[in-house]
């Protein structure tokens, strides 16, 4: 039998896409494929793409073209493209880059081995005379079995001490700017038993922080008849042994209930941190986005969160330059950012995506206007963030060490800092391994990042 090929893997996009990459790597490793790290060239290069925004598609196409050049020069033998861009653009990709050998859509993740090895091609779609393998199907509820849901047996790309756990796939929200439902399908959730089993596997693999992700985490359980919903899941996960932090990402504001707030407040392992993309604050723009929430309802929810979850950190994202957004509506958003004081915030320029309702709306703004509004929002948040960082000077914080130190300085995060998207805390002094929990005192800040030193002796907190 010929040896399985070696594979170099490029993962693009969000943490949800990262989980797909880790699962595909696990499947390839189980099939005997050698995984080449550190950017080395393998027999096959696999690129798991993001297709959410035009900028992410441009990035993916750039990487695909680099792989095509490697194939032309003989550095690699085969190019396989997977993920959201495949699901969205399908065979148009091979028309742009004819060197592509196989396509694998988001609903055909398990076919990655056949796409890479090139054997057992049953199920692949082909044109007459075309040697390419195309594994591209739509989501069907009947095929969403426990086996297909599972993200267990992954080959993780995150550091060993933290991991992402996808609790659901797809989305039932109908935001007019978003392509996710057309790419990932309607919302379909994992069972509580599956989530707990995956959690235990991640903990056994060294994870002490689990970050819960999904396109809409607050609607968890709706499609599987799980009445306790997100609050029930959080309370169940709070019983897990061996985990320090469980963090909630991608919450949807219109579906955030009092029971969810109580669960976050009362469960000691649930981090007092909420990532809740708001997208805008002006009522007319929110209606145009079909966000199903008003400014008043948003402010009431934010007030509840801060009042009933002491010390909660709230992260959000906004979109600037949505079609028809007036200068007055934008100024309302900028003022809101300056006044509310989010713990962390990101702002995206509106991206005109073909196939979305927003694409057909009137009043699309010039790119230079959109970009100037993004910069104004980020400057407003920068002032907030620097004031918040300065106010932490002298306070004690419990942090998780995130990496090995350099010159005695260790990257770390407190509960209000999520991996990859937020600022970090630099701890000077002591010797630690990644994943260690340490009490520190904040000594200052360098722009968004905090500076700290250990409190008392430098021993990590016993877990």
SSE layout and pairings?
Elements: E1 6-11, H1 15-30, E2 34-36, E3 44-49, H2 54-72, E4 78-83, H3 84-89, H4 92-96, E5 102-104, H5 112-117, E6 133-135, H6 146-149, E7 162-166, E8 168-169, H7 180-184, E9 188-189, H8 192-204, E10 209-213, H9 229-237, E11 245-248, H10 258-266, E12 270-275, H11 283-289, H12 295-308, E13 313-320, H13 327-340, E14 344-349, H14 367-391, E15 396-401, E16 409-414, E17 425-428, E18 437-446, E19 449-454
Parallel strand pairs: 1-2, 1-3, 3-4, 4-5, 5-6, 7-10, 10-11, 11-12, 12-13, 13-14, 17-19
Antiparallel strand pairs: 8-9, 15-16, 15-18, 16-17, 18-19
By CATH, the superfamily of the largest domain comes out as tm_1862 like domain
If classified by CATH, what would the architecture of the largest domain be?
Alpha-Beta Horseshoe
Give the fraction of residues assigned to helices.
25-40%
Radius of gyration over C-alpha positions, nearest whole angstrom:
23 Å
Mean pLDDT: 90
Tally of alpha and pi helices: 14
Classify the fold: give the CATH topology of the largest domain.
pyruvate-formate lyase- activating enzyme
Uncertain parts: none
β-sheet strand percentage: 15-25%
Count of all domains: 3
Q: Tally of extended strands?
A: 19
**Mind telling me the CATH class of the largest domain?**
Alpha Beta
Distance between the termini: 48 Å
